[in-house]
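Quick check before the chapter quiz. The format below is the same one you will see on the exam, so make sure you can read both the input and the output lines.
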Amino acid sequence: MQLSWYIAKAAQEVHIWGRVVVPLKAGSSLKLGKMYVYILYSGSLNRYYVGQTADIKARLIRHNRGLVSFTKRGVPWDRVWMKKVENRSEAVLFERRIKGRGAKRYLQDIGM
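Here is the expected output.
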């Protein structure tokens, strides 16, 4: 293949944490730094899912369209709790703390 094809392909993809992501369109914005830790509930599985993301709306859409392998069996997912944190490091620590306690138990602890 020609070098120009590889350059064009590289401009269309960005690799973050080992995954290929499509860059944002011109004019759109993603506020870097602010993150969300969230808990989803699937009534069909009677299970909770804990995660973290920078774009909570897009992430919930991905979960409910079956695009996330771990949650595709439990569609539809409802967001039952979320918290905004300052950065990804804080989000990862908070997510681990919730997973260590268990999502259901954590929700009971905070009165939900």
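If your answer matched, good. Strands lie at 14-16, 19-21, 35-42, 47-53, 77-85.
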